[in-house]
Structures are given as structure tokens and as C-alpha cells.
Design goal:
This protein has about 325 residues and is α/β, with parallel strands linked by helices. It has 3 domains: about 15-55, 434 Repressor (Amino-terminal Domain) (Orthogonal Bundle), CATH 1.10.260.40; about 65-165 and about 295-325, Rossmann fold, CATH 3.40.50; about 170-295, Response regulator (Rossmann fold, 3-Layer(aba) Sandwich), CATH 3.40.50.2300. The chain has helices at about 15-20, 25-30, 40-50, 60-65, 80-95, 110-120, 135-145, 170-180, 195-210, 225-235, 250-260, 295-315, and strands spanning about 70-75, 100-105, 125-130, 150, 160-165, 185-190, 220, 245, 275, 290-295, 320-325, 325-330. Strands 2-1-3-4-5-11 form a 6-stranded parallel beta sheet, sandwiched between helices. Strands 7-6-8-9 form a 4-stranded parallel beta sheet. Strands 10-12 form a two-stranded antiparallel sheet.
Length: about 325
Amino acid sequence: MSEGGSRTRKVTSHDVARHAGVSRAAVSRTFTPDASVSAETREKVHKAAKELGYRVNYLARSLINQRSDFVGVVAAGLDNPFRTLQIDHIARALLARNFRPVLLPTSKSADTSDVIGQLLHYSVSGVLVTSDAPPTSLCEECAAYGVPIVLINKGDDIPLVDRVVSDDKAAGLLAADCLVDGGAKRPAVMAATGVSYTARRRVDAFISRCKTLGVVADVLPIAINDYAHGFEGAAQLAGTNIDALFCINDYMACGVVDRLRKDRALHRSGPIRVIGHDDIPQASWAAYDLTTILQPCDLQARQAIELLVSRMEEPKMTARVEFTPVTLVKRRSA
């Protein structure tokens, strides 16, 4: 409030233009990604904007242009460190391409109409949907509004919707080779295959590879692929001679390792080698030193955004699938 009691007037692009000695169009181009503007003009405008305290109202701009620089990122399972890592890389990659991420946490049981409403409210230019988030109805609704979508690590085959998928088959093969080559005679895999596309693919590849290598792999089922269920699910090892375990994500594997450390009766016949998947930061901690399979979030984020941008430019092209390569990270646990 000023001394006279009137509200301070908001700084506009006209004010910036006058202060910088340029046209209003030059101010607009300066704050528009990839627009043509000279370095001298850009410097003048940024200097004037800083001195006046000017900020671009992107929401207002989206209402005018019917399209914003916002990209919706729909994610569930945010308790999983891998998801946090994945979202971080997606957000950074979007910012590098002059997009602004809008994170919308959800779950498989969420009402997708709420998510769709929020996405459309922000006039998003596109949407990235990670695994564990509800996709099908969301995709169909957004497609009806002409909003491009890319799915990450999801198996849903939807017309005009692109996907980026980690090479889960290669992951299963790597895990089996690592454990069997290390001397495993009775390997097993732990997963909640009923709720995860990636889990099913990794489990199937692991079992098939073990069979090829001349060993039979057991399956230890759990309800959810998380730490708590990994910890509880490790109880299934009691009374068995299982000597190696592939956990289809590191979050679960950490739970298994902690349970094995706490309850040594579970591996009375000898140590159990454990391998995970994702290479979350915790995997390298001394407490776990977990052998795992790296799913490169940075590369996957770039792949997804490239597909999204090309879908924005050509919305009617045939749906595409790109695979993200994986690599084995050897540590002490296996």
C-alpha cells in the first residue's frame, strides 16, 4: 500500500518496454522461448525487468494463446525413492527445454476426472504419465481435448499415445546371469506382478533365463512392490534353500536386506545374494551395498520429452514405443 492508501500498481510489460527503451513486442519476444531477439535487446529487457520487479504471468499468457508452457507430470508412488529421482530428472529436462512442470500426485484408485480437470485448468501443452498412475481414462479424456501424452514404463497400448519403456527383458536376463554365474543353485524372484507391467516383464524374463541356464527359479509373491512388503515378504524365505533373490525394484530389496539382517534364521543354510533394480541413491549406501540394475532416469526423461515435443508438432502420427537401455551395477550384495 502507498502512503495515500492506494494499492501499488502492478508492473506491466509496457513499463518494462519504456524503461528499457524498446518496443512491447521486443519484451514479449524476450520472454518467449526460442523467439528471435538480439543479445543487446535481451540484456536491456532483463535488466529493466529486474529493476522494476517484473515477472511474466504465464497463466495469463496461456489464456490468451490457448496453450501454455506447462507440462503435466502425473505420478503415483512418491514414497519410492526411484519415483523421486525420476520426477527430478523429468522436471530438470522439461526446464531445459523451456517447459514448466506441473506435478499432479495421484494413485491407481484416484478419480482421474480430478486429475484431468487440473491439467485442463492449466492449459497444459502435454502430459507425462509415470508408472503406477492411472492412465487409460486420463489418456482418452486428454486426447479428446487434443492434449499430447507420453507414458513412462506403462504397458497400455493407446492410439496416438507414445510410450518410453525401460528394457525390462534385458533387466531380467542381467539379474539371472549375475546370480547364476555367481553360483546360485536355487534363485527366486520377488514381485507383485498383478499390479505392475514392469514387474511382470522382469519376472518373466528372469524365470525364462534361469531355465535356459539350467536352474528353476521360484516366485515369492507380495501385494505391493515397496519397502514394507519386501520386509514382510522376506519371511517366505524361512524353511527354503533359496540362495539368491531378484527383487524387481531397489525399494523392495532394501526391505528384504533389512529383514535378513534382523532375522538371521531366514538364511540359516547360508548367505542369500540379493539384486535389485533402479539404482536408487540408497542402493550404494554401506548398509545395503546393493547390486542392482541401473535404469537411467536422465536418458528416459529426455526420450519422453522428445516424443512429447514431436507429438505436439504432429499429433496424428502413429503411436511409438522407445526402450531405455539398462546396465548391471555390481556391488557386495550379489
